[in-house]
Amino acid sequence: MLLQRVAFAVALTIGAIGLASAQEAAKPVLELYAKGDIEIAADGHVTDFHITTDDLSPEVGKLVDKTVRGWHFEPVMVDGKAVNAKTTMGIRLSGTAAQGDSYSLRIKSVYFGVLKRAHAKPPDYPGDAARVGLGARVVLYLLVNENGKVVEAVPAQTSLDMRAKDEREAEMWRKRFETASVKAAKSWRYDLGSELVNGKVVPKRHAIAPIEFVAYRHASGWKAYVPGPVHPAPWDKKADDNEQRFAQLSDGETASADSNFRLKDDVIGKTL
After folding, report:
1. Sign of the dihedral defined by the CA atoms of residues 140, 145, 147, 149, in that order
2. Which residue of 50, 101, 212, 249 shows the fewest CB atoms closer than 10 Å?
3. Residues with Cβ within 8 Å of residue 99, at least 6 apart in sequence
4. Are residues 149 and 37 in the same domain?
5. Are the beta carbons of 112 and 167 closer than 8 angstroms?
6. Is residue 202 a contact partner of residue 190, using CB atoms and an 8 Å limit?
């Protein structure tokens, strides 16, 4: 089976410095990621915010804190009544060089309902894929029950880091990685206490979780993926709008796919 490398769809490691484009090769781009706990009142204004990322610089932390505290959300409703609510959030920033040693930071993505794994067994690497040096990125749809246990795991998109000779071979490899991912995910358990609506834990939730299988040739450095087909979420057979979120999440992260938290204004691209 002949596998050919590809050189597009480059995935940036969190915090790594890359190149914005061929035309802006001299301008480094910094990507930062932060997590935090956020509380909102019944009217949608932020009542409290706490950054939980340890390695964020104090200067950036202050900018993120000030920005988030100024956000306004659509009220979270329970039985037709607006209530107080709390959730976890992830925010990804893109920094471009400004004057001197300073950087201009913009919001690249924001998502709410970040789930913390209380137990997460890593998947077994498919042996035949390891032998040919093939890696992959599998994104799963998850159904998490009221006890935090994953009761359903369905492949959403699987991308290979090498090009197969044809679609039949590519699908065979995708199935290998998906089988290993689903098996592992069904043993996972999450701590759901970080998101509360009207003081109560959300009983069930749908989530998205990526898993990366890194081949030895990519143990350090750049990774490129050939995107596989996107499958609609099992809880919504209509056209799926989650594809953009697939790229936002990193290996080891899990985010709610049906969060109750929605911002009133679009903050993507805004400068901190």
Report:
1. negative
2. 101
3. none
4. no
5. no
6. no
Same domain for 133 and 225, yes or no, is: yes
Residues 55 and 126 in one domain: no
Q: What single letter denotes the amino acid at residue 129?
A: A
The two tokens of residue 119 are: 């137990």
pTM exceeds 0.85, yes or no:
no
Q: For the chain, how many structural domains are there in total?
A: 2
Residue the block writes with tokens 């596989």: 228
Q: Per-residue confidence at 131, pLDDT binned at 50, 70, 90?
A: very high
User: Are 121 and 107 in a shared domain?
Assistant: no
Contact 198, 78 (CB under 8 A): yes
| H-helix or E-strand spanning residue 248 | helix 243-248
Contact 264, 72 (CB under 8 A): yes
Percent of the chain with pLDDT over 90: 54
DSSP run (H or E) holding 19: strand 17-19
Quick one: CA dihedral 104, 110, 113, 119, positive or negative?
A: negative
The domain that contains 171 carries what CATH number?
A: 3.30.2420.10
- 43: in domain: yes
